[in-house]
Design a protein that fits this description.
CATH topology of the largest domain: Rossmann fold
Strand content: 15-25%
Order of helices and strands: EHEHEEEEHEHEEHEHHHHHHH
Radius of gyration: 19 Å
Shape: globular
CATH superfamily of the largest domain: NAD(P)-binding Rossmann-like Domain
Number of domains: 2
CATH architecture of the largest domain: 3-Layer(aba) Sandwich
Helix content: 40-55%
Distance between the termini: 52 Å
Number of strands: 10
């Protein structure tokens, strides 16, 4: 019997790619995973999602590949790898993409789609995907999911007309919703990335510099004031760049964060494992855009300098 399901590929099967790929597979979709160092572990044991919300989810029989040349062409591609590697990812995406494939960037930071677009074939539809989820990679093929999972989806560029783009985003949202993942269409990818940056730029770097999770950061008056001031800088920069923010947005984010389990954002795990941090995507690009708009971000700039020193120190020691 012929399988007429759309084929979904996951490039970067870490915490993000592993979680959403397994959710889609559990939802009955044909999912294929491209891996590097964890290939053998996933081939032998599959992928496990240890979720505080959903219980344990295990994909035991996984379509796993170590070389993109071995993957079948995919109609949809989820890119879970960090934006620091986008230049290297472009030829991999192109090799894995079927004609008119839809590529969803599940990445943090600003301008990811804009930078990647010139490196991809024109037939590819490029979609921004913003993940509001608390999770981390606990071990080879094991993802710890603590809370949330919502994805905002917006069409960035490609051969689609406005009407076709809306239909593609609606199809993508339904694909996730049918797999028990909340998803929402969004009209403006750049504005949505700035909106997510309000939380990300504040917490990611402070997790590293103060070596503390969300509970401790919000429970101490000094660290809480630091987080609040960093959020305020990002809001001011976003608005200077023409992207309006929801009313009282930082206060709403802090209230939601207080209701989450104690959480350490992705940059903390990069620091812990001595990997390159997403400094330019989360901080450098925001500082450049803000400066062009005549807006200063002194605390954000100071934090970037501290994080750059930390990263330089451990990368040079390797």
């Amino acid at each position: 019997m012929q399988d007429n399901r759309a084929r979904i590929g996951v490039i970067g099967t870490g915490a993000i790619g592993g979680f959403y790929g397994v959710m889609l597979a559990q939802g009955g979709h044909d999912v294929h995973f491209l891996l590097r160092s964890e290939y053998q572990a996933v081939r032998d044991n599959g992928i496990t999602i240890d979720s505080m919300v959903l219980g344990e989810l295990k994909a035991e029989s996984v379509n796993a590949y170590q070389d993109v040349a071995d993957m079948p062409p995919c109609d949809w591609l989820l890119v879970g790898a960090k934006a620091t590697s986008n230049a290297d990812l472009a030829p991999i995406i192109a090799a894995a993409a079927a004609q008119n494939a839809k590529v969803i960037l599940l990445q943090n930071g600003l301008n990811n789609e804009e930078d990647l677009r010139p490196l991809l074939p024109e037939h590819i539809h490029l979609i921004g995907g913003l993940c509001y989820v608390c999770l981390f990679r606990e071990g080879p093929g094991v993802v710890k999911h603590q809370a949330n999972g919502l994805i905002d989806l917006g069409y960035h560029s490609g051969p689609a007309s406005t009407e076709q783009a809306q239909a593609i985003i609606s199809e993508a949202a339904q694909m996730f919703i049918g797999s028990n993942v909340q998803a929402r269409p969004m009209a403006n990818v750049d504005a949505a990335r700035w909106q997510k940056l309000v939380w990300n730029a504040a917490f990611n770097g402070v997790h590293v510099i103060l070596n503390a999770g969300t509970k401790d950061l919000l429970g101490n008056p000094s660290s809480r004031a630091l987080v609040e001031s960093l959020m305020a800088e990002v809001v001011a920069a976003a608005e200077a760049c023409g992207h309006s923010m929801p009313p009282d947005y930082p206060a709403k984010l802090l209230k939601a964060t207080e209701q989450m389990p104690d959480y350490y954002a992705s940059m903390y795990h990069d620091w812990l494992h001595k990997r390159p941090m997403e400094l330019d995507r989360l901080y450098g690009e925001a500082l450049r855009q803000a400066a062009e708009a005549g807006c200063s971000m002194p605390k954000t700039e100071a934090m970037l300098h501290m994080l750059q020193y930390i990263e330089d120190s451990y990368l040079k020691a390797k």
